[in-house]
Design brief:
5 helices; 37% helix; alpha+beta; four-stranded antiparallel sheet; 142 residues; 8 strands
Amino acid sequence: MKIEDTLSQVPLFSELSRTDLKRLGRGTVTRQFPRGHVIVREGDQALGFFLILSGRAEVVKRADGPNPRVLSTLGAGDFFGEMGLLDGYLRSASVRASVDTECLVLSRWDFLAEVRTSPFIAVQMLPVLSRRLREADSWLGT
């Protein structure tokens, strides 16, 4: 499967044109993470977006503490770090590979470089972000 086809499955990128998906795809790399490896650490700067191609990973709060809490398990097709592309805030949880895991990774720098070159990418993402905010508001009952 082509990278742009893979990226088109991510809700945040679902409204992007094929051309823009190809542009983003050029900035991606594939990374392998062995079982037990912490892919991102809670409290670290958010530096990229990860799409799991194969394997599984756990999202964990307080992973380094005495009482870690697994929030969810992610598998092939799942992703994390999408908001970090936009805001660069600190990671709110750790993600660790529960088995050998392969991810497609898009760094924040590469993403922002493409947005600066083609601002329409950001415009196409706005409706998706708006829907996600509405869903979150609805879920929270606000």
